[in-house]
Structure formats: structure tokens, C-alpha cells
Write a structure and sequence with these properties.
The protein has 92 residues and is mostly helical. It is built from two helices and no strands.
Length: 92
């Protein structure tokens, strides 16, 4: 005959098994979500690296001496002066 103690132990084991199954499902879903978030963050990181490279390149182009001279000539109307020729009077 099945005793009351055996029935209680069986029910306790069944409840524990059910709880652990639910916990496994929850953890599997969480791992899947974290994996997807990681992939999204990796893509975003690569995009930010590309944007950073573009911004650094743009900065160096805009601050190059040739570009500064071009802006000075076009926007500010400056002209490049020719150097004066210096001669030594004694050598003539």
C-alpha cells in the first residue's frame, strides 16, 4: 500500500520538477534576449567606429593648411603677398 509519506514526497518532487522546468524556460529566454542585445550592440559599435573615422578625417581636412588658405582667400578676400626681394647694396 502507498503511504501518505510517499504521496507527499512524490507531490513535492513533482512541484520541484515543475518549478525547475519553468526556471529553465525563463533562463533560456533571458539568454536569448541577451544574445540578441549583444548582436545589436556590436552592430552599433561598428557603426560608431565608422562615424568616428569619418569625423576624424573631416576634422583633418577642414584644419589642413591648404583648406585654411582657401577659406582665407575666398571668404575673407585675403591675398598671398609675394616676399620682397632683398639685395645687398655692397655686392653691386
Amino acid at each position: 500500500m502507498i503511504s501518505t509519506k510517499m504521496i507527499v514526497n512524490f507531490l513535492l518532487a513533482l512541484v520541484t520538477l515543475f518549478f525547475l522546468s519553468l526556471e529553465k524556460i525563463r533562463l533560456s529566454w533571458e539568454v536569448s534576449t541577451l544574445y540578441n542585445n549583444n548582436e545589436i550592440l556590436n552592430v552599433e559599435h561598428e557603426n560608431l567606429k565608422d562615424m568616428n573615422l569619418q569625423l576624424i578625417t573631416q576634422f583633418h581636412i577642414e584644419h589642413s593648411p591648404a583648406n585654411i588658405e582657401k577659406i582665407a582667400k575666398e571668404n575673407l578676400g585675403m591675398i598671398k603677398k609675394r616676399p620682397k626681394e632683398i639685395t645687398n647694396e655692397k655686392e653691386r
